[in-house]
What we know:
The chain is α/β, with parallel strands linked by helices. It is built from 15 helices and 13 strands.
Amino acid sequence: MSxxxxxVKYAAEFRKDFEKLATEIGKIIVGNREIIDGVITSLFVGxxxxxxxxxxxxxxxxxxxxxxxxxxxxxxxxxxPDLMPADIVGTNMVSETPEGKREFQFxxxxxxxxxxxxxxxxxxxxxxxxxxxxxxxxxxxxxxGTTHKLTEPxxxxxxxxxxxxxxxxxxxxxxxxxxxxxxxxxxxxxxxLMEILDRTTANISPHADKVLDASxxxxxxxxxxxxxxxxxxxxxAARLILSTHPAGxxxxxxxxxxxxxxxxxxxxxxxxxxxxxxxxxxxRFNVSFDDIRASALxxxxxxxxxxxxxxxxxxxxxxxxxxxxxxVPQTV
Length: 332
C-alpha cells in the first residue's frame, strides 16, 4: 500500500466498498445520506458514533441495517433507568464443574461484540453509562480484577434523545469525548415521508445484503491513516481546536463570549481522521481545508460546553463552531 499505484488502486476499492455499504443501508433507510456517511466513516476510522434525535426517526434501524450489511457480531443494549453496569459488561457467576466443585466463571455481557448498539444511552444513570468508558477507550473490560480483551473491530454506536425530553440523563463529558462524531438526525421531508410510508405500509420487506467482513474493515482503517495531511492544513486544524478554548491565545471572540470548556486533543484527532475519509471519497490522497471545515460540526459539537450566557441565550454549539470557522484564517 505504500507505493503510489497500489495506493490509488486500494483507494478506488475503498470508495467502492463505502458506496456498496451505503447502498445496502439505503435499501432500508430513506434519505439521511449525510448520517449514513457519518456512520460508515466511524466504522472505517475505528471511532465510536453518537446519533441524537427524537424517537421514531430511524436511529436504531439505521445501526441495525449497518449490522445486517456486515459479517460482524452485533449486540443491542436497551438503556433504561434500572439498567446496571453488570448488565452491560458482564459479571462473575458461581458455576459447578464436572467434578462437583464450585467456582466463579465470567459471564460475558452484550458489550462483547464487534458492533454494540447502546440504544437510548441517556435514559440510563451516569453510573451505568460510564460502564462503557473502559470498553470505548481501552477496547477491554475489567471485572473482578481480571481484564478481558474485546475483539476488533469494536465499535459503540449509541443513540440518544434530546436532553429536553423526559427521563434523560446527560452523558458524562469524559464519555462524550470518546465518541468520534455526534450526528444529529432530523425529521424527514415530505418526499422522504411518502417513501417511508410506501416501504413500511405495503407488502415489502427490504433487507441489506452482507458486503463487508472484519478483515476488510481493518484493512480500510490502515488505508485511511496513510492519507497525507500537509503541515499547513494540520496547523489550521490545530488552530481550529485551540480557538475553542476560552481565554486562550487563539480563542475566537465567540468562544470567549459563550464557551466554558473547549475541545480536547481528541477533537483534533477526530477532525483529521474524518477529513482523511472525506479526501478519499473525493478521489484525493491529501486532506484539504474544505475537508477540515466539512468535518468540524460532527467532530466538535459534543466536545464544547456552553457557559451561562450561552445557555441563557439558547446558543447552540453548532452556531459557535460555524462562527469560529468564519473567524479562523486558513494560514498565518
